[in-house]
Amino acid sequence: MTQSNRPTILTGDRTTGPLHLGHYIGSLRARVQLQHEARQFLLLADTQALTDNVGRHRKVTENVIEVALDYLAVGIDPTKSTILIQSQVPELAELSQYLLNLVTVARLERNPTIKEEIRLRGFERDIPAGFLTYPVSQAADITAFKATHVPVGDDQLPMIEQTNELVRRFNNTVDRSVLVECEAVLSNVTRLPGIDGKAKMSKSLGNAITLGATPDEITKAVNDMYTDPNHLRVSDPGRVEGNVVFAFLDAFEPDVRNVDELKSHYRRGGLGDSVVKGVLNERLQALIEPIRTRRRELEADRGEVLSVLRRGTMRAREVAGETLSDVKAAMGLSYFL
């Protein structure tokens, strides 16, 4: 595949905390592979994170480098993927401003993803304007790099739909094809549960295993995992469905046959939780150890990590600047050319 025929991918993470195994299985692992197959932009979405973290801005900005460390530690190659800081690409904010004129408040409020996020945060009608309009900001992020593919979870499909609505609206308004529609790429991995079994894995909920977790932290997390509350004795038949340990084994253990055998044994009885947890603990220790080691090496030279971010951000500004120039020319805003 030639460079010109390669798809362009835009993906990223809010910088509200270090990344965890839910991120790894849901997107990071795929991004490492995609960088060999596509032109990939990885966005550290600090501006978006600030929309619902008023007063907690230091946490957001401090975690920019933490997320970057996680990217590099899992194998993201900055010579193949462009890692950028959202707030340092002003072209994105300007493009957002133009796109905001093409959508109504009512349409934003109907976005199912936004409605659910508002409910979860308890905003009711006290919705920060920046949060309500973040679908437009996300559309600017995607269209600025003319991304053709955007890996997302199914809960983000309304965001992609709204992005493409804005693309069509803009192109129809200026009567030319300037912006590019994108395609959602769904992960084939279901969302990883938290170790408590009650919600998705989240650092803020205290039910996550970070990519920099120590051996003791991993062991403790595995031992604390929710299993089957009715599996009181080793001899009792156990339930696999809803059992977090087996959900993790399905996600991380490549020996599918062994996992199936463990499930069968657990269901008929005679297999203790401690044995199954021991298998998972061994697998997670082997997975995280090289990531943790690499992360510590990178952490020793944060100046170089910042240099990587600076170079990636400057590359991103060039690409976004070209798109913005096309947008302004189409709108008649290129007064001095």
From TrEMBL:
SUPFAM superfamilies, per the entry: Nucleotidylyl transferase
Catalytic activity: tRNA(Trp) + L-tryptophan + ATP = L-tryptophyl-tRNA(Trp) + AMP + diphosphate + H(+)
Domain of life: Bacteria
Keywords, sorted A to Z: Aminoacyl-tRNA synthetase, ATP-binding, Ligase, Nucleotide-binding, Protein biosynthesis
UniProt name for this protein: Tryptophan--tRNA ligase
A GO MF label: tryptophan-tRNA ligase activity
Family membership noted in the UniProt record: Belongs to the class-I aminoacyl-tRNA synthetase family.
InterPro entries hit by this protein: aa-tRNA-synth_Ic, Rossmann-like_a/b/a_fold, Trp-tRNA-ligase, Trp-tRNA_synthetase
Record's keyword annotation contains Aminoacyl-tRNA synthetase: yes
Protein EC: 6.1.1.2
GO cellular component: cytoplasm
The protein's enzyme class: ligase
GO BP annotation list: tryptophanyl-tRNA aminoacylation
Pfam family, one: tRNA-synt_1b
Protein's UniProt keywords contain Nucleotide-binding: yes
